[in-house]
Design a protein that fits this description.
hydrolase activity; 11 strands; 13 helices; Rossmann fold; elongated; Alpha/beta hydrolase fold-5 domain-containing protein; binds 2-acetamido-2-deoxy-beta-D-glucopyranose; 4-stranded mixed beta sheet; signal; alpha/beta; AB_hydrolase_fold
Length: about 400
Amino acid sequence: MCRPAVLFLTVVAVVIVVASVVGAVKPVVIPPTRNATTEAALIIVPAGKISGLAYKPLATTIQHVSSAKLWIVLLTDWLAGFPNPAELPIGVSDATSALKKQGMLSDNVFLAGHSLGGENVAPYGTKHGKKRLKGVLLYGAYMTRLDVPLTDYPVPVMHLSGDLDGRVRITRIADTFQELQQSVSKNQSAMYRTPVVIMRGVNHAQFASGPVPAKMTFYDLKAEVSSATAYQLIANQTAAFITTSLAVPGEDLTNAKNILNSSYSETNAIFEPLLRLKAFDVNTHNSDVWGVSAQVQMSRLSNYSIRVTNQILTSEKDFVTSKPSIDTTSPGTPLVRTLSHVRYVPNPGDLPTFTHSPMYVAVKMKSFAAIHNATHLQPGISTNITCKDINEV
Ligand SMILES: *[C@@H]1O[C@H](CO)[C@@H](O)[C@H](O)[C@H]1NC(C)=O
Ligand SMILES: *[C@@H]1O[C@H](CO)[C@@H](O)[C@H](O)[C@H]1NC(C)=O
Ligand SMILES: *[C@@H]1O[C@H](CO)[C@@H](O)[C@H](O)[C@H]1NC(C)=O
Ligand SMILES: *[C@@H]1O[C@H](CO)[C@@H](O)[C@H](O)[C@H]1NC(C)=O
Ligand SMILES: *[C@@H]1O[C@H](CO)[C@@H](O)[C@H](O)[C@H]1NC(C)=O
Ligand SMILES: *[C@@H]1O[C@H](CO)[C@@H](O)[C@H](O)[C@H]1NC(C)=O
Ligand SMILES: *[C@@H]1O[C@H](CO)[C@@H](O)[C@H](O)[C@H]1NC(C)=O
């Protein structure tokens, strides 16, 4: 059990030593292309095995769209090509010094990370965001369950990804969107402070340019928009998020809020069917919809002559020893109590590329004969039903 942990610590220690000796990460500053009263900077951390310079086309598109005097810093030359927690703090402070040196006056610094870059940027923001950043952007990445809840993140944070992302799938982002829905229901302005936005037709790789690493191509889906369109979509959302986070009153702020407000509605529409399906076995009643439906099928009493409830048992052991029951003692229609156990692929580290839907749903039901015997109800159809029939229904 403890071997991998020791190995991991050793790797981190080696990275820290090597990083402090070499100081490998290099900030490449792209100066602003316009003058404006609001000045800001966006530091971009690349995906694993992608050069920081591959984000140049996205960077110039963001500068073009943003109404701010916007500096961009591309962080490149990571150890072995992988952004990591040891080099990131050095990279961010080197970038900040480089900006000051080249004449940036404000401290409106935003940090974006793509894919593995985002995985590193999220916990960095949790730790140092309050002091060093005005906001964090996760491109094709997400805050894991090991991090803080969205509402407790110290600075504004945006999740931005494509619906054709095959690596960080929208089934995982759906959970984060659900967190956002809950905070929006309490305070509408959560849609500006912690937006979760899905762009249609965009895949995982499209934040960058140039060759895509084989590992990324392996999982990713085929994009349905051109790179130029993808940069536009990403830039519009990024610029709007920077503007709402800085909250300088004016027309720009109103426009930016309108963009994030419509993104929230559009993303809501994308997630609606997914979240409805998820609620079949993850809901506040802790009741499995499949289990109820299967039991109704099994009884062959399709017209409300019985009532069926279901309880999801989290522990497999409890499920194995549990028994379904029929209650004919209470007044009204007989009540059949069923039980379910929902099994997922174990994913304690909350890693991407794990399937998110259940591996299986096991249901304990009463047989047709037992229901008939206990309730004396006559079924309309007399043929037996099999598990295969139920699964097909
Ligand atoms: C911004 O203003 C400064 C000082 O007036 C000027 O030197 C610089 O060229 C301007 N930059 C742009 C992009 O217009
Ligand atoms: C909603 O959140 C915003 C930004 O975090 C805050 O300024 C505002 O006071 C909150 N409104 C309410 C009613 O809590
Ligand atoms: C977002 O837009 C809708 C519809 O236009 C509006 O009712 C709502 O108040 C807006 N929300 C915020 C937080 O501005
Ligand atoms: C980006 O925003 C601009 C200005 O609102 C708009 O004209 C353009 O269509 C947007 N681009 C995309 C790809 O949505
Ligand atoms: C039928 O019901 C009787 C009593 O109501 C019970 O003793 C018997 O075991 C039941 N048979 C089946 C197959 O459930
Ligand atoms: C449904 O209910 C009606 C009357 O309550 C009954 O005649 C019928 O046999 C029941 N069963 C089915 C399967 O329709
Ligand atoms: C249904 O299954 C029961 C129990 O296995 C069996 O006794 C009965 O004959 C079957 N009925 C039909 C119509 O196949």
